[in-house]
Each structure stands twice: as structure tokens, then as C-alpha cells.
Amino acid sequence: MSTNRNPHDDVVTSYKDAPTRTVDADGVTFAYRELGPKGGVPVIFFVHLAATLDNWDPRIIDPIAAAHHVITFDNRGVGSSSGSVPDSVEAMADDAVTFIKALGFTKVDIFSFSLGGMIAQALVDKHPGLVRKLVLTGTGPKGGKDIDKVAGTTYWDILRATLTRSDPKEFLFFNRNASGKPAARAFVKRLEERTVDRDAPMKLRGFRTQLEAIKKWGRSAPDDLSKITQPTLIANGDNDRMVPSILSEDLHRRIKDSELIIYPDSGHGGIFQFHQKFAPVAVEFLGR
């Protein structure tokens, strides 16, 4: 891993080829990857529960990176980043701010999924001036109904996946039906397109700590989302078993002038199942 950023690097346009770099800040070595043209407001990607740099769908990243400076990162204690995972979403947001500022950015767009969307909301609440635009997918608000049940759903689907020798994401992110099953297999296959410089796996202790943080988020008093004035795009499938789809509608209702897309016959990973439709929408939203 290199610890420096060279502004004259050739522009990488494919996520599978983006080198892993590190930056040190506040006692943490953060691992990250960047691609796309430099300059302008960068798009920082906030990843989901138990996920590392290797869990981003290249069919979402690559179209956005065609026109935007894209950065994915492992937050504290995740993947190849050092330290231990904090036990609250708010502390995870503080770490994300530390990472963003370490790279020298004063204004960013955030693309988030699931737990990443919770971290993004906590960050915007505390540091509104840092964020220009917000993409919230497969996520829900603080105090959202049934968010505290994520752990139970997750452990159940991990068991189901183990029994069928599948990837848990096939159960957690997709419907187990004629359209969901092939979409799930295709998604998991896309995550394997990168063959070199793979990230370190999520540690079990960090995964459990993330689950506790999500439970705490679900049981906390709601934030005032009317304070979010950034242009916001919200998306999900219509049958999200992890973070109920109705919570995406709740976010949309509470965030003024936000846009909402609900994809039919799809689950938590609706944006991945419908990547051909969603990626152009995200590109257009970020490019306005």
C-alpha cells in the first residue's frame, strides 16, 4: 500500500483497478481507494454493515467515476484500516470526518448504503457545511421503526446462507424469487471482479460492534431531519427485510425536497439489482 497521493497519477476509471492507499489521521491509518477525474467536489462512498472496500458494486461506482472523483474508504477498525470499530453511529461519523479532512477536502458529496446511510445522516447533522449533496440508499432514520431488529435478521440470513453454502448477501440483499436469485448471484460475481490487492476481511468483533451501534441508532430519539437542506436522493427496493422500505419513505417525507426511488420486486440491494437504471439517475443527480 502506498501512503501518498500523486495528483499526476493516470486517471483510473475502473474500480477493480483502483489502487489501495492509506492516510494517517488521529492515530488511525485509513485505507481507501480513489478513481475518476480529480477536481470538483469528490463523492465519498459510505459502505454497509460488515463491508470493506471490496463490497462496492463496480456497476454503481464506475459510471459515477466516469465524471466524478470517487473515493471509497474503510472506516476505523474496518478492513485494512487500523483501530477498533466504535460502538455508535455518531462516533463512526466523527471518524469519517477525520478521514475526509485528512485528505484535505472541505466540501464533499456522500453516497451511502445501509449502515453507511446512518453514518451519513449523523455526519450531516453535526457537520452540515461539509456536505454538498447526499445519496441515501437502503437506509433509515435514527429511531426508525424496526431498525433495532437488523441483528436478528442478519444472523438468521447468515445461518440460511451457511446451510446453502451461499453468500449471506444473497439472502440479506435480494428477494428469494425468480428475479431476485439471479440478480443476487450476478451481484456477488461482480464483487469478485477485482483479483489483486483485495481488502482484509471484516473482523467478527467489529461486525458485532457495528450491529450494536445499529441497534442503538434504532432505539435512539429521532433527529430533526428538517435541518437537512442538501439536495438528497433516496432509493431502496420495495421489500427491504433489513431496513424496512417504509423508512425510505419516512426519510423522503422528512427531508425537504428530497427525491425518492423505490424499485419494484427487490430488497435491500434494490440499487444493485437495478444498477442499469439507478446508476444513470445517481450520475445525473450528482452532476446537476
Main sheet summary:
8 strands, mixed
Estimated share of beta-strand residues: 15-25%
Rg on CA atoms, Å: 17 Å
Label the structural class.
alpha/beta
Total E-strand runs: 8
Q: Which series of helices and strands comes N to C?
A: EEEHEHEHEHHHHEHEHH
The CATH architecture can be given as: 3-Layer(aba) Sandwich
Instruction: Report, as a whole number of angstroms, the end-to-end distance.
Output: 35 Å
CATH superfamily: Alpha/Beta hydrolase fold, catalytic domain
Q: What number is the mean pLDDT? A: 96
Indicate the low-confidence ranges by residue numbers. none
The coarse silhouette is: globular
Instruction: List the strand order in the largest sheet.
Output: 1-2-4-3-5-6-7-8
- Which percent bin holds the helix content? 25-40%
How many separate helices?
10
CATH top level label: Alpha Beta
Report the CATH topology name: Rossmann fold
How many domains make up the coordinates?
1
Give me some keywords for this one.
288 residues; alpha/beta; Rossmann fold; eight-stranded mixed beta sheet; 16% strand; AB_hydrolase_fold; hydrolase activity; Alpha/beta hydrolase
3D structure, described in words:
- With 288 residues, the protein is an alpha/beta fold.
- It has a single domain (15-287), classed as Rossmann fold (3-Layer(aba) Sandwich), CATH 3.40.50.
- Helix content is 36%, strand content 16%.
- It is built from ten helices and eight strands.
- It has helices at residues 58-65, 89-102, 115-126, 150-163, 168-172, 180-190, 204-218, 246-254, 270-273, 275-287, and strands spanning 20-25, 28-35, 43-46, 70-73, 108-113, 131-137, 232-237, 259-263.
- The chain has an eight-stranded mixed sheet, with helices on both faces.
- Helix 1 (58-65) packs parallel to helix 10 (275-287) and helix 2 (89-102) crosses helix 3 (115-126).
- The longest helix has 15 residues, at 204-218.
- 47% of the residues are buried.
